[in-house]
Automatic annotation (TrEMBL):
This is FAS1 domain-containing protein. PANTHER family: EXPRESSED PROTEIN, EXPRESSED PROTEIN-RELATED. It comes from the Eukaryota. Residues 85-187 form the FAS1 domain. Residues 193-248 are annotated as: Disordered. Residues 194-248 have a biased composition (Pro residues). SMART domains: FAS1. The keyword Transport does not apply.
Length: 248
């Protein structure tokens, strides 16, 4: 287990350890017994390999997201798969909400799932989406909404992306990670799925340069005139008639 740094007291650190251990148990119960439909919905996705998970954790630690890395290393969530986007709160963001947790209940697994968007969206692709676009998460019928699509102040449910594309080691596994400055609130009015969600069923492709139209064909060449025949040679004058010989 990798120890994480928390600005709270040692008792808070112990609380977080108990918290994530409880989540690991309740997640297994929820996904193996209570939510077969949810598992079937993701049956076509490829499970995340242990190598990919280790790469994610290392990328998170390299970017100073120690608390979230510790939580994921505790959980090793069985539902993690490819083609997802992890929204990862900073250490300070997690520490700021520890005091709200008065007990360990089954409400915590959805909090983790609520920070996993079920599409692989790097930051360049997120910038293509208009403001108020709703993005589905692993919590059924719950998602997050783009509340500001300014590249310098990009927010989802008012949580600002402070570290975009922080997991380069798992790009080939179609996984994106973005660091955010606060936790998403699953009870937010922005969470429920709208009647006509604007987000497409497939991930948005990165923009491709416009294809230049082919150049117009050259104008047709004028028909070639047949070569002119050379003028006929001048006629030679007829030879002079022979002189008559006088008869004697």
């Amino acid at each position: 287990m990798v120890a994480f740094i928390c600005p709270k007291s040692a008792s808070v650190a112990l609380f977080l350890q108990l918290f994530v251990m409880q989540i690991s148990i309740t997640l297994l119960v929820q996904f193996l017994f209570l939510a077969p439909t949810s598992m079937q919905a993701h049956a076509q996705q490829r499970d995340l390999s242990s190598q990919d998970l280790d790469a994610i954790l290392q990328d998170m630690r390299n970017n100073q997201f120690f608390t979230a890395a510790s939580i994921l290393s505790f959980l090793k969530p069985p539902f993690l798969e490819n083609r997802i986007t992890l929204m990862i709160p900073t250490d300070a963001a997690i520490a700021s909400v520890v005091d709200r947790f008065s007990g360990l209940t089954l409400q915590y697994p959805p909090i983790v799932q609520y920070h996993i968007v079920t599409r692989n969206l790097n930051f360049k692709q997120l910038l293509l989406l208009p403001q108020e676009t709703w993005l589905p998460t692993m919590v059924p019928s719950k998602g997050v909404q783009i509340t500001n699509n300014n590249p310098t102040n990009y927010t989802l449910n008012d949580a600002r992306i402070v570290k975009p594309d922080m997991c380069p080691s798992v790009v080939e596994a179609e996984i994106a990670c973005h660091g955010i400055d606060r936790l998403f609130d699953i009870s937010s009015v922005l969470a429920p799925e709208p009647e006509n969600p604007p987000f497409p069923s497939e991930p948005v492709a990165a923009p491709t340069p416009p294809v230049s139209p082919p150049p117009p064909p050259p104008p047709p060449s004028p028909p070639l005139s047949p070569p002119a025949s050379p003028p006929p040679p001048p006629l030679s004058p007829p030879p002079p008639a022979p002189l008559a010989t006088p008869q004697s």
